[in-house]
């Protein structure tokens, strides 16, 4: 494999940690609130936490990351350690991150991992075995971004294995989320990333129709595999949302109008049927411009850290490490961990 391919793997993971850290300060805020908090400029780089809705993040400083990178790191470490996907080790790897910090974590993910941790702590006498899916109840659905935000490493490995089925995504999703919408939205991210790694488009060959074709192919694959998800109707809901993105792409010659329509009709909240199509749309708008894409995802408001990390993973994989601003890559020493994990994934699965 080439150096360019390595840089695509590293760019993908760097996109997650940078997007997470860039979006963290304004998570849950509206675009108007973000503008007011930044003197009318919007987020243009790493800043200290501005939002006050998530008290655990109020003291976070510029460049601090949250669960998006923690969970992605956990998935990557397990894949490297096991030289492939292992459900039990994935659970243990994410539990380790849970013990490090829970600041900003979604309740569904936290509670799901705590039930798994109880199983390990009691040697199987209590809690839930990793092979047992988490069940939906009257008071629990779990349709947030906790699965979609962490699947980038699985996509990188599935590409190497030429594995286009959603099995690994479903298994990983069932560790924490009982709602199949969370898994299939993650599978949409997985498919886009696999297609990017397959084509590895470069800025000198700017052809937006190519990225749109990737998106259409992703929708077809979702439709083809819908029977693997537990609720076919819910799968159709995601496809309808994706079809809406395709329709909105008719505004492509007026990017400002397109963005406004995307925000209004698709949404930017932590509901996966909003944030995942929206994040993919950001990639379609800026497949060759990492800075513009990440900042646009952040300044759109809502689940800013997850939206920016998912968009950052896709754009970062497409442009590679060299397409990410150097001042962002070097802003915090911790960001180098993404490059190191990317190289380990490359050497474990890609280098022949």
Account of the protein in words:
With 352 residues, this protein is mainly α. The chain has one domain: ADP-ribosylglycohydrolase fold (Orthogonal Bundle). Helices cover 61% and strands 0% of the residues. It has 16 helices and no strands. The N and C termini lie close together (7 Å).
Second CATH tier, the architecture: Orthogonal Bundle
Give the SSE string.
HHHHHHHHHHHHHHHH
| Average pLDDT over all residues | 91
Described by the principal axes of the CA atoms, the overall outline is globular
The amount of beta strand, in percent, is under 5%
CATH superfamily: ADP-ribosylation/Crystallin J1
Rg, Cα atoms, Å? 19 Å
Compute the separation of the termini in Å. 7 Å
Give me the secondary-structure topology.
Layout (H helix, E strand, L loop, with lengths): L2 H21 L7 H7 L29 H16 L4 H14 L6 H15 L30 H10 L5 H8 L5 H20 L8 H17 L7 H17 L6 H11 L6 H14 L4 H10 L4 H16 L6 H4 L6 H15 L2
Summarize the structure.
This protein has helices spanning 3-23, 31-37, 67-82, 87-100, 107-121, 152-161, 167-174, 180-199, 208-224, 232-248, 255-265, 272-285, 290-299, 304-319, 326-329, 336-350. The protein has 352 residues and is mainly alpha-helical.
Give keywords.
single chain; 352 residues; ADP-ribosylglycohydrolase fold; 0% strand; globular
């Amino acid at each position: 494999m080439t150096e360019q391919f390595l840089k695509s793997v590293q760019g993908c993971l760097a996109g997650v940690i940078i997007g997470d850290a860039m979006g963290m300060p304004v998570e849950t805020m509206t675009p108007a609130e973000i503008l007011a908090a930044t003197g009318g400029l919007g987020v243009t780089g790493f800043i200290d936490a501005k939002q006050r809705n998530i008290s655990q993040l109020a003291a976070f400083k510029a460049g601090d990351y949250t669960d998006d990178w923690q969970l992605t790191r956990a998935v990557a470490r397990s894949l490297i350690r096991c030289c492939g996907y292992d459900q039990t080790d994935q659970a243990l790897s994410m539990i380790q991150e849970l013990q490090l910090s829970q600041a900003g974590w979604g309740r569904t993910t936290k509670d799901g991992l705590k039930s798994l941790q109880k199983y390990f702590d009691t040697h199987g006498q209590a809690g839930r075995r990793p092979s047992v899916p988490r069940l939906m109840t009257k008071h629990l659905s779990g349709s947030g971004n906790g699965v979609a935000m962490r699947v980038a490493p699985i996509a990188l490995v599935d590409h190497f294995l030429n594995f286009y089925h959603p099995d690994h995504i479903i298994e990983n999703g069932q560790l924490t989320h009982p709602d199949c919408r969370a898994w299939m939205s993650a599978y949409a991210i997985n498919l886009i990333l696999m297609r990017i790694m397959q084509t590895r488009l470069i800025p000198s060959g700017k052809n937006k129709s190519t990225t749109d074709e990737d998106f259409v192919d992703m929708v077809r694959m979702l439709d083809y595999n819908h029977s693997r998800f537990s609720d076919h109707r819910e799968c159709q809901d995601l496809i309808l949302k994706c079809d809406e993105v395709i329709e909105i792409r008719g505004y492509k010659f007026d990017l400002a109008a397109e963005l406004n329509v995307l925000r209004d009709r698709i949404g930017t909240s932590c509901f996966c049927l909003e944030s995942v199509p929206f994040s993919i749309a950001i990639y379609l708008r800026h497949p060759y411009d990492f800075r513009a894409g990440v900042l646009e995802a952040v300044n759109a408001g809502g689940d800013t850290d997850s939206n920016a990390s998912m968009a950052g993973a896709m754009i970062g994989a497409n442009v590679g490490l060299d397409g990410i601003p150097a001042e962002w890559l070097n802003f915090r020493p911790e960001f180098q961990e993404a490059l190191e994990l990317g190289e380990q994934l490359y050497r474990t699965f890609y280098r022949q």
